[in-house]
Amino acid sequence: MTSEKIILGIDPGTNIMGFGLILTCQQKMKLIMLDDLLLKKVIGHELKLKKIFEKTLNLIDEFHPDEIAIEAPFYGKNVQSMLKLGRAQGVAMAAGLYREIPITEYSPKKIKMAITGNGNASKEQVAGMLQNLFNIKTLPTNLDSTDGLAAAVCHHFNSGRDSSEKSYSNWEAFVKQNSKRIK
Question: How far apart are CA 178 and CA 183, in angstroms?
Fold first, then answer.
């Protein structure tokens, strides 16, 4: 019995949200889509978040992913940037949870390690490995889309393994795992 699965990978951002969709069957992967949502011209942070939510819902409704893999915000020095990135990730997660799609967060280092074997790899190195893996003729201009694809591939590589990454199957699971942060 073969079990096919569609995985949506998301690299959240308030200027560019990258995403990739793969179809997996056992150990094989097939690229479905690789793209990004450009938000630089959208005025107002709230409108950007709305667009991220809507795009994520549209991807879910069109492709019916079984699971979502999302890149977790990295800890940088700019608190405002991190706050905006966390909001972008949150609305993408909310869209998945709204449609009751299981979501797993992966750190940027874990994603890079899964794709290249080096947790400190550059965006270009990750994109190059994915280009070879899926025989992508031309890489997209914005490598945020390959980062989204990398999250999906990382999730596939980690399927069935005990992971230290955060995973949510619904709102109740999300609240339960984050209740200490909320109090």
Answer: 9
Q: State which amino acid sits at residue 34.
A: L
Q: How far apart are CA 15 and CA 11, in angstroms?
A: 11
pTM here?
0.86
Residue 75, class by beta-carbon neighbours within 10 Å (0-12 exposed, 13-18 middle, 19+ buried)?
Answer: exposed
**Residue tagged 């990258």 (tokens):** 18
> How far apart (Å, rounded) are the C-alpha atoms in residues 49 and 173?
23
Active site residues: 11, 71, 144
DSSP track, 40-105? TT--SHHHHHHHHHHHHHHHHHHH--SEEEEEPPP--S-HHHHHHHHHHHHHHHHHHHHTT--EEE
Interval 127-170: pLDDT, tens: 999 999 999 999 999 999 999 999 999 999 998 665 455 555 55
